[in-house]
Specification:
Oligomer: heterodimer
CATH topology of the largest domain in chain A: Beta-Lactamase
CATH architecture of the largest domain in chain B: 3-Layer(aba) Sandwich
Number of strands of chain B: 11
Order of helices and strands of chain B: EHEHEHEHEHEEEEHHHEE
Radius of gyration of chain B: 18 Å
Number of helices of chain A: 10
Strand order of the largest sheet of chain A: 1-3-2-6-5-4
CATH class of the largest domain in chain A: Alpha Beta
Structural class of chain A: alpha+beta
Number of domains of chain A: 3
Distance between the termini of chain A: 45 Å
CATH class of the largest domain in chain B: Alpha Beta
Radius of gyration of chain A: 51 Å
Number of strands of chain A: 13
């Protein structure tokens, strides 16, 4: 949730650090100014105090015989903020009206900070005359220094208080303006029909958004490819199912119309059943292929190790009865375990399709040899047959969905090869089709990567 | 009625051939486009059922080639391609009918009969020559309203002659229209069937044009 909240508004994410930094810098500047100004102010005003004291000393150097204490007239409204006392030979002779009779500081020479009867803080400079008979105290309320400092600081802080909200407002507006293309993009995307696959074309695209729009267009392209292949698959599948269904229908009708012709009826019923088997096989292959199409295109997440020899032996055992029924010889040469990376079920499907194809498209009494071996570190599955083989152009078209070798009597769908190729791609294996030098028919080699 | 079936799928072809035979058609079955074109070019077929996805030569190409060489045999395209553009293209290329698999055999038969009828300028299923009435769909013939029992061959022969009324058909033409492959046609088979037809119907229904062949005359206006 934390990140969720942090990511909520791009505007806030842009503005908050900006305004925060501005405040910190400004406050830092204020603190610096405070120290600097208070230092300068102390120097200046202390200088003034000393100067005033010096003046008083000079003034009192002449003998002051009078017994009376002279109160200096108060000439200005700020006079109460200043205090002075002049003692001559220990006797108070001159003072400001707000000064008491006792010396305001215990320090006789130099600066001190004292708290007087009025409970205010005073900065006091004390000095003596040259003849040591005159003692002068000049004091000033420290509060006035603070007032000056505050006045200076206000000059710095006040604009900050006014400027910050203003900056936030302008920043908000500027960022909002800056994000207009993004909003525009979202509107364009929102209006887009789901089937629309043409690339986004947004005029005056800002530099920062080019990669995003490019990525989106790339995505659209990939989705389109997927949809096209999906649509083609559905169309092909429906199309391909029509023929077996038409055959089943025709044969069933022939059986119905056979009347007394038992031989014809039996023949038609046999063909009806065979047609059902064929449609079932086609549906199974279509489902396998559909599952494979949605399977990951790489073997990254398939880390299991499968013994190719064992899988091949099992599949060959399954298919042996079919081969025997047609007088075909199915031989397996898998002397040692052969571990390959992959999924057992998928590899089983691959091996089954290869052997099934070899048996199906070879004549009766043909030979099919399946071998599993490790060649220069690579696991290799070979399926060879003594059938008619294929021409170069035919080999080139293998694996095209529903491609069938012309003139073949076998009711294949041409999907087997698509399945083999797809599974091989998933595991990064390579499929090679060539002429079998040993048996004269087709030789298929599947080579797993090292 | 002899029809050509061009279908590469063994199971479907077998079913269609058997089914059409049950409906009284003589069926010759070819499995690739080249053979289909060759057979259509021979011109002996009353109609043809053509699959589009044929090996060696696509059905559409066959159709185009056949129509280009002025062969007018009615062609019914039977295909799994059901998209409207495919249908339009098929009909525009010269198909007379376009049927998507799977198809009911009886419907297929009816469509074939209809194609043949239209190819001979007939607007109705029933053919009439004088007092003789022939209903191809019911495979029934009547004389003055009374049903006459004919053998398959006799019916087919009469059907061909009545479809080609007012035209003289040679014995070879009749044989080619009547017999599918694999039948050993005896040299006098047509004469024997003609003889039977004359006996069962009217002696003067079928006229012999010596040295040329046979003909029936449409004595009443065709309906």
């Amino acid at each position: 949730m934390r990140t969720g909240r942090r990511l909520k508004s791009l505007q806030a994410r842009l503005l908050a650090p900006l305004l925060g930094l501005l405040t910190v810098v400004w406050l830092g500047a204020a603190v610096l100014i405070w120290f600097d100004a208070s230092h300068e102010l102390d120097e200046l005003l202390d200088g003034h105090l000393a100067q005033a004291a010096a003046l008083l000393v000079m003034q009192q150097s002449g003998a002051h015989e009078s017994d009376s204490v002279e109160d200096a007239p108060s000439l200005h409204k700020y006079t109460p903020k200043v205090v002075f006392q002049v003692f001559h030979e220990g006797r108070l002779v001159l003072r400001s009206t707000n000064a008491g009779t006792v010396p305001i500081s215990k320090t006789e020479q130099g600066f001190s900070t004292v708290r007087l009867a009025d409970d205010a803080q005073w900065r006091v400079f004390a000095t003596r005359g040259v003849e040591r008979d005159v003692q002068v105290y000049v004091g000033e309320q420290t509060e006035s220094r603070d007032s000056i400092l505050w006045a200076v600081l206000q000059g710095v802080l006040l604009p900050l208080v006014i400027a910050l909200p203003l900056l936030a407002l302008v920043g908000w507006w500027a960022v909002r303006q800056g994000l207009t293309p993004l909003r525009h993009l979202s509107q364009v995307l929102a209006r887009r029909r789901p089937q629309a696959m043409e690339p986004l074309v947004i005029p005056d695209l800002s530099t920062e958004m080019v990669p995003m729009v490019q990525a989106l267009n790339g995505l659209f392209e990939r989705i389109e490819q997927m949809l096209v292949s999906e649509r083609r698959f559905t169309a092909d599948a429906a199309h391909e199912l029509r023929t077996p269904i038409a055959a089943i229908r025709a044969q069933a009708q022939v059986a119905l119309g056979a009347g007394d012709d038992a031989a014809q009826r039996d023949h038609a019923l046999q063909f009806t059943l065979a047609g059902c088997d064929r449609a079932t096989r086609l549906v199974e292959q279509l489902l396998t292929l559909a599952r494979l199409e949605t399977a990951p295109a790489s073997a990254d997440d398939v880390l299991a190790t499968v013994d190719l020899s064992a899988v091949t032996r099992r599949v060959a055992a399954d298919l042996a009865p079919t081969a025997l029924a047609r007088g075909q010889t199915l031989a397996l040469e898998a002397p040692s375990p052969c571990p390959v990376a992959g999924d057992e079920t998928l590899i089983g499907v691959l091996v089954r399709n290869l052997i099934d194809n070899a048996l199906r498209y070879s004549p009766n009494n043909a030979q099919v040899v399946v071998s599993v071996a490790i060649e220069s570190g690579q696991a290799v599955l070979r399926v060879q047959d003594s059938g008619a083989g294929m021409t170069e152009p035919e080999i080139a078209r293998l694996g095209e969905r529903f491609y069938r070798v012309l003139g073949s009597d076998q009711p294949g769908s041409g999907l087997g090869w698509s399945i083999v190729k797809r599974i091989a791609t998933v595991f990064g294996a390579q499929v090679q089709v060539s002429r079998s030098e040993r048996l004269g028919g087709l030789a298929v080699a599947v080579r797993w990567p090292r | 009625m002899r029809v050509l079936l061009a279908e590469d799928d063994a199971m479907l072809g077998d079913g269609l051939r058997a089914g059409l035979r049950q409906l009284g058609f003589q069926v010759d079955w070819v499995r690739d486009g080249v053979a289909a074109e060759r057979e259509l070019a021979s011109g002996d077929y009353a109609a043809a059922v053509l699959d589009l996805g044929l090996p060696l030569k696509d059905g559409m190409d066959v159709l185009q080639a056949v129509r280009a060489s002025k062969i007018t045999t009615p062609v019914l395209v039977l295909t799994a391609r059901d998209a409207v553009p495919d249908r339009i293209r098929g009909l525009d290329q010269g198909a007379d009918d376009y049927v998507v698999k799977p198809v009911d055999l009886h419907e297929l038969g009816a469509r074939l009969r209809s194609l043949v009828r239209r190819a001979h300028g007939q607007m109705q299923d029933v053919l009439r020559c004088g007092a003789v009435l022939l209903e191809p769909s019911a495979r029934r013939v009547s004389l003055n309203g009374e049903c006459v029992t004919l053998s398959t061959r006799e019916f087919d022969l009469l059907h061909v002659l009545m479809l080609n009324a007012d035209r003289v058909m040679s014995r070879e033409q009749l044989e080619q229209q009547l017999y599918s492959w694999g039948y050993e046609v005896e040299s006098n088979a047509i004469e024997v069937h003609i003889h039977h037809l004359r006996r069962k119907l009217q002696p003067d229904l079928i006229q012999t044009v010596r040295g040329i062949g046979y003909t029936v005359q449409r004595t009443s206006a065709p309906t």
